[in-house]
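seq as requested:
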Amino acid sequence: MLTISALAALPRLGLAVLVPGPPGVLDAEIAWLHNTELPDPSGYVGRTELVLTNGLWLPTTPPDEFVDHCLAAGAAGIVFGLRDATPHTPAALTDACRAAGLPLLQLPIDVPFTAVTQAASDIRATEQQTPLAVTLRRGTAFTDALSAGAGAEGVLRVLRREFELPLAVVDRTGAVLAHSADAAPGADDAHIAATALTRTPPPMELAIADGATATLLPVGALGHPEAALLCLRPAAGLTEPQQQALSQAAHYLAMEIARRQAVRASEERFASELVDMVVSGVESPVTLTRRLVAFGIDPAQPLAALAVTSRAGVPVTDLAAATRTTLQDQGIPAVVAAGHADVVAVCTWRRPAEALPAWCRQVTGADLARERRPPLLPDGSVVGVGGPVTSPGHLRTAVLEARRASAVLAQTSRHLTVARLTDLPTYHTLLSRADPQTLHQLTAVLGALRDYDAAHEGRLENTLRTFLEHQASPSAAARVMHLHINSLYKRLARITELTGRDTATLTGRLDLLLALEADALTAP
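C-alpha cells:
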C-alpha cells in the first residue's frame, strides 16, 4: 500500500519526517503525488495526494497560507525538497504544518522529485504484482500436489497451508472425495451437497446440519458440475483473497475430477467386459477367476451379484458411481459395470447369506425412513439380488437372476426396493418373460375402463388398483379412498360391466390384476 511511511522507509530517498501529524496518518493510504510551486495549489491537488514542493512560492506567500491551501484541497502531507537557495526547511513551514496537523517531510538536495515519484510507482507495481505472484505460487503448489498423486486431498492441503478453512470435496453422487480434519461431512451434508449440484445453477450457499451455512463452489463443467468444493463457512464470512483461492482450487480440482473420470472409464470398460464374460458363459473358469483376481475379488470367497435400477430416471453412470462408492465405503471388494438400463455389481460377500438382502435394503433407504437419514444409493433405486454362490462357475445364474429381479422391481413392484427372484410373486416373473404381443393382449382388458374414465372424468381404474392393492377388501379400499361402501360397490359393478371380468370372483380379479401388471411392464 502506498503510504507516507512506506516512502519514508526507503533509504535511497533519504526522507526525514519533520512533522508526523496525528497518529496513524503516516500509515494511511495516499492517492498519489503532486508536484507544485503554485502559491495556491488547492484547485489542482487531489484529496489524499502528497504535495512535493521546492518552496519557490516562499518570496510571495507565507508558509501558513500555503499550508491552509493544501489543507483545503485535502492533501495528505507536504514534502519540501531542499535546494541550494534553501538548504534547510523553513522553520515557519514546520510550525505551520505542526499547527495544522499536516505531515511534513524533508527531501535532500541531491534527490530529485522524480526519484520519489519513481519510488511510489515501484510500490504500486509491487502491490499489484503480489497477488499475482501469490496466485502463481499457489497454482504451482496445486500442480505439484496433483502431479505427485495427492489428488483432491493434496489440493486441500495446499489451501490449508494458506488459510485455516474447513474444506471438503463431495461429488454429485454424494461421495466425499476429500476433507480437512475439521470438516468431515456426514451423510446428510453430503446428500444435501449432491442434491444442490443438480440445480441450475447450483446455489452459492447451502444450509447444512446444525443450522450452519456452507459456501459451495462447483467443480467441473459449467451447468454440469461433477463435484463441489465446500467451505463450511458462509460466503459473507470469507475475505476476497480466500474467495479467490477457493475459486482457483476449484479449477485444479476439476482437473483431478477429469483424471478420476478417465480412470473410471477405463475401469468401467474392463468391468463391462467381465460382466459380459460372466453372462455369456463362454469363458473358462480359469480365465474368469484370473479376471476376478485382477479386480481384487477373491474367487475362493462367496460371490454375490447385485443389479441396481432406478425408478426415478437417474442416469446409469451416476447409479454406477454411487454403487461403486457405497461398496467401497462398506469395505466390500466389487467390480461394477454400467449396462444399458441397469448397473451390475459382482462382489465378495463374507457375511451370512441372509444378511445380503437386509444390507441392500439399508443402502437403498428402505430401512432408514424412521431414522430420517438419506440412502446411500440415489432415491428410487431398486436392487435385484443374486447369490451368494460358492464358485465363479455359478456367477452366471446369480447375475441373470439379479438382473431379472431388478427389472421386475423397477416396472411392477412399487412397494419393494430389494428382492431375489424367488422373493417376487410368480406372476411378476412370468410376465417379465412374456413377449410384447402377449402383454398387449392382457392390457387390452383395461381399454373400456380407460375410455369410460376419459369420457366421464371417472376414477374407475384408480378404484380397481386400490381395491386389488388392499387384498380385494371393499371396506379397506373404501376407507382409503374416503368413499361410502355402497359407492365403492357401485364402482366395482361398473368395472365388471365394462371389462367383462367379475370383481367378485377370484378368476375375474386375477385377470384384472394381470392386466394392470402387464400394463406396468409395457409402460414407457
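Residues 364 and 375 are 5 Å apart (CA to CA).
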